[in-house]
């Protein structure tokens, strides 16, 4: 062995890959860990990155959370039953994002309830403000006499009774089978709105000593659900916007459409990769596949699939290729990006987690098929906790997709409004009708291009008056909500 061995000596000469035999010979104990590190194909420089912080730089706070995660500590939340899935019973239900987050906190034991606070050693008094019983989630929302009064008023096809449930999860499972009676005409998930109403009534009583009646809670729940449902209807009036649609974006003639996916096995750390590239001109389909060993996580597997696809596409043509989607999980791995140019692709959606890119200065997604941009839910204060709860550390092969989705959902708190460094945003020539209000939060923005969209909000009268008017309009909308 050479005395001054460097990392390059462990790479196969002339390639960008490890010399596996040499690595295993020199470092038999840690070879599997070394091989999990994927060297750059493009000679990019190595850098340290602390994955727990959005900016990649270590902080004591995130270190503290990491330490907490690595030790056994009792969780306050009751475990979710087997037939409970976060997507089906929380994230995918038909209700506002604010309420989904609230339900998530409820199930996670993260609401500032007396019992929860006491377990954290914070509460002075842990009693229900309505009846002085111990204030647990189960009590406050379901079994408290006040809560029971509220639920009795709920316009469900069959009366709902929660006395036999043991965890909030069970209530959410049952909620999916409840039917709203006409004439309420509600399509939204009413249970979430009622729970929210009970929570608001509790806070009003605890902190402002104002009592709310059960009928008032139910009325505001129903009207909240109805208002929200109406706001979701997409057939909004389209005014004189068509004149802005006349000029289509100029697109290159050679177009490729690319998709990729990966499968990963925890037991073996092997990954299968696959991609399909479709040429729009010749209609030819290029398929590619590969496998990788020493892959540390499903995220890494997906990233390798995208990498394989990009390399294949770059061999097919150097002019252009079109992406249909950006894997949500990848955004969280591009934290130091400062410019992202995806114009003239075929993006239909945009990852919610885009807001992680706190260093991004320039974002260009013009000439895609976007219908909307990720919204901001003003969840900054819980972002750290969500990140901690959802660090995808304990992947089991069958469940990693589900868990990855949960992670994505938690990340949806970071959205356009959190791109705090953004100076230029170009979303022109898409199908966007409503810009997210959180654009008002972009303090540094100097250039906003929105032409060529069927915009309803902000209306064109506002857009025509320039950026400041748009921001003013958006911030007024934010405060009304
Ligand atoms: Zn009570």
UniProtKB/TrEMBL annotation:
It comes from the Eukaryota. Keywords: Leucine-rich repeat, Repeat. Residues 259-324 form the RNase H type-1 domain. This is Reverse transcriptase zinc-binding domain-containing protein. Gene3D superfamilies: Ribonuclease Inhibitor. Coiled coil: none annotated. Residues 82-151 form the Reverse transcriptase zinc-binding domain. The keyword Repeat applies. The keyword Kinase does not apply. InterPro entries: Leu-rich_rpt, Leu-rich_rpt_typical-subtyp, LRR_dom_sf, LRR_domain-containing, RNaseH_domain, RVT-Znf.
């Amino acid at each position: 062995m050479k005395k001054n061995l460097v990392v390059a000596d462990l790479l196969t000469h002339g390639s960008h890959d490890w010399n596996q035999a040499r690595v295993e010979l020199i470092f038999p104990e840690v070879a599997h860990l070394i091989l999990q590190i994927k060297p750059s194909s493009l000679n990019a420089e190595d850098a340290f990155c602390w994955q727990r912080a959005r900016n990649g730089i270590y902080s004591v706070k995130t270190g503290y959370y990491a330490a907490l995660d690595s030790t056994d500590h009792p969780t306050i939340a009751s475990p979710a039953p087997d037939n409970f899935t976060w997507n089906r019973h929380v994230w995918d239900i038909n209700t506002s994002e604010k309420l989904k987050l609230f339900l998530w906190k409820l199930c996670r034991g993260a609401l500032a309830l007396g019992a929860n606070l006491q377990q954290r050693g914070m509460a002075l008094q842990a009693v229900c403000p309505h009846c002085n019983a111990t204030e647990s989630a189960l009590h406050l929302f379901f079994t408290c006499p006040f809560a029971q009064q509220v639920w009795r008023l709920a316009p469900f096809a069959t009366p709902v009774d929660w006395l036999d449930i043991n965890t909030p999860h069970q209530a959410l499972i049952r909620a999916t089978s409840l039917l709203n009676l006409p004439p309420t005409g509600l399509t939204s998930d009413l249970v979430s709105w009622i729970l929210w109403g009970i929570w608001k009534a509790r806070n009003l009583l605890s902190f402002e000593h104002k009592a709310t009646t059960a009928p008032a809670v139910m009325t505001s729940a129903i009207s909240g659900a109805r208002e929200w449902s109406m706001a979701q209807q997409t057939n909004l009036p389209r005014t004189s916007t068509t004149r802005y649609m006349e000029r289509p974006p100029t697109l290159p003639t050679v177009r490729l459409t690319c998709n990729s996916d990966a499968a990963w096995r925890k037991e073996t750390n092997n990954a299968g990769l696959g991609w399909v590239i479709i040429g729009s001109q010749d209609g030819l389909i290029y398929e590619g596949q590969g496998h990788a060993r020493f892959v540390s996580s499903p995220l890494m597997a997906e990233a390798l699939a995208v990498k394989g696809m990009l390399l294949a596409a770059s061999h097919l043509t150097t002019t252009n290729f079109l992406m249909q989607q950006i894997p949500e999980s990848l955004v969280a791995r591009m934290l130091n990006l400062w410019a992202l140019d995806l114009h003239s692709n075929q993006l239909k959606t945009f990852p919610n987690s885009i807001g992680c890119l706190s260093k991004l200065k320039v974002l260009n997604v013009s000439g895609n098929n976007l219908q909307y941009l990720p919204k901001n839910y003003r969840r900054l204060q819980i972002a750290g906790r969500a990140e901690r709860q959802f660090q995808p550390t304990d992947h089991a092969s069958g469940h990693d997709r589900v868990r990855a989705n949960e992670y994505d959902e938690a990340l949806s708190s970071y959205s356009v409004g959190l791109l705090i460094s953004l100076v230029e945003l170009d979303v022109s020539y898409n199908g966007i009708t409503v810009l997210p209000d959180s654009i008002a939060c972009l303090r540094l923005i100097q250039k906003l291009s929105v032409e060529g969209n069927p915009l309803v909000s902000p209306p064109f009268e506002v857009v025509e008056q320039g950026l400041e008017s748009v921001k003013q309009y958006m911030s007024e909308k934010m405060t009304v909500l």
